[in-house]
Each structure stands twice: as C-alpha cells, then as structure tokens.
Design a protein that fits this description.
The protein has 188 residues and is an alpha/beta fold. The chain is built from nine helices and six strands. The chain is 45% helix and 16% strand.
Length: 188
C-alpha cells in the first residue's frame, strides 16, 4: 500500500510528519510519503497545492494508493479522492476538517489562504460521493477534539473510528506514532 499523507495546517510540523511516514514505511507492505501543502504560503494557490498532490498520485507505481488527510488536509483529500476514486483505493482522514466551510474563522482563512477554497471544493465533492465511494472512506477522530468538531469530520456512509484521546494535536500525534495498525485497518 502506498500512503500519500496530506498534512493539515501547521507547516512547521512537516519534519515530524516526514519522520512518522519513515516509521510507517518500515512495515514491509507500506510506503508512505508526505505531500506538503504549505497552507500558510500566501503566494501559492489552491491549484498549485492540488497539482502537487495530483503529481504524487500519478507518479505512484503502486495500485493500492491510500490518501490520508490530516486536519485541514482532509478537505483536500476528500476532493482528490472524489476526482480519482478509480486510481485511489481508499481515503482515510485523521481528525479531518472534511467539510463545513462556513464553520471556520475568517482569521484562519486569512493566515491560510487556500484553505477556504479547499473546503468549498470538499463541500461540493461531498454531494457527488456515491454510496460505493463512501464505503471506501474512513474517518478517525476524537469526540474530544475542540479544534475540528466531530460533525465536520464524520461523513455519512463512511466508516468511523473513535479515538479515546483528548484534543486535536495530541490525537494526531498519537495516531502517527502509535496507531498505524488503526490506519491500516481503516485503509483495508
């Protein structure tokens, strides 16, 4: 399985994310890479971020591509999965802001300009998801996440995995370091 990890906001954490993907890649049946989004870059458009992920999908030589969208990366992952469900085998979101463009502070959009468009496109993509596509989606989230509300993570018709952890960032770190088995289960 080839995992394309789509990070959320907090570009400064990409080094840690790459470290976690190296750990995941130690497993014989997994290769994993981070596709940086650079959400806070005011000069890079949504289209450029999307193009980078598109290239990663096209360059993958594995027929078992899994998109893992973390937090804000969930919105990009939902859209790309919808457009590429013939190539991408599964979609897993981790504490993903998968929809709900109107539920975000304008200040957050000002600091991460392409995020608004990403959520708008994800909201539109949600209406296009077929029941079969929804069955290939899994959401992993904490009911105690006060950054991304569980209602903005859950997707009707998708499998949902609840974490017993508290908080947004601690839940993400917990899964990245200790719960690869859960990600593998969600991606199967």
């Amino acid at each position: 399985m080839h995992i394309l990890y789509i990070p959320g906001l907090g570009d400064s954490y990409d080094g840690f994310r790459r470290f976690a993907m190296r750990l995941w890649s130690l497993h014989p049946d997994i290769t994993a890479e981070v596709v940086p989004m650079r959400w806070s870059d005011p000069h890079e458009t949504y289209a450029e971020k999307r193009h980078r992920l598109q290239q990663a999908i096209e360059l993958s030589n594995d027929d078992r591509i899994v998109l893992v969208g973390e937090s804000a990366g969930g919105s990009m992952a939902v859209t790309m999965y919808t457009e590429h469900s013939m190539i991408v085998r599964k979609l897993v979101t981790l504490c993903g802001k998968n929809h709900g463009e109107k539920n975000v502070s304008p200040r957050l959009y000002r600091r991460n300009p392409a995020f608004r468009e990403s959520l708008q496109r994800a909201d539109a993509a949600m209406t296009a998801l077929s029941p079969a596509q929804r069955a290939n989606i899994s959401t992993i989230y904490s009911p105690h996440d006060h950054v991304v509300r569980p209602a903005d993570t859950r997707i009707d018709g998708a499998r949902a995995y609840l974490l017993g952890s508290y908080g947004h960032l601690p839940s993400i770190v917990y899964v990245l370091l200790f719960r690869l088995r859960l990600v593998r289960t969600a991606a199967s």
